[in-house]
User: Fold this.
Amino acid sequence: MIGYFRILTSLRRVAFALLSAAQSAGAEPPDELLPFIPTDAKYLAHAVGDLNGDGRQDYVLVVEKQTPNKPGYVIEEHQRPLFIIIRQLDGSLVSRKGNERIVFCDRCGGVFGDPFASLTAGKNTFTVQHYGGSAWRWGFEYQFDYSRRDDTWQLVRVEELSFHISDPEKAEVKIYRPPHDFGLIDIADFDPGNFQGVGKQ
Assistant:
């Protein structure tokens, strides 16, 4: 019974994330984030939170590199860089860390389409969520927390969800946490396809 309720909770989180993403479609970034969007990219999403616990509001920013104007040319790998942008004492912003693998490409969701579901942030933490598939659906959630000791953001939780749309009650949920499933993994080094057993213990 506990497993069943955990699955329902995961499915509700996915539904909420998709609703939130739909509601924020077409949103514009704050003006102060514009300098951090590369010239070959467009704004995709951002989240606001005190990411390093210093009492100031920071940003997690995701952009999307544009496909060059060439027939049949498609960007897939490293298409959607994520940046952690921290507010300084004087109020200015600086990009502290980044990762080009954590946010899946716009065609990586299979028949479902774009799998990027949500980006959320809070005090000392942020989470990226994906959802995709066809008859077999899948979801991935990656959470990173700030380490004051190491002055960086490290992977603290991965949740994997899979189920067939004809029988979602038989969904399978797997949760991975350190130190049992992986060691210290910096946000800059995180690879969604290769994190189990990785990282210093």
About this structure: The CA atoms of residues 135 and 165 lie 6 Å apart. Helices lie at 2-23.
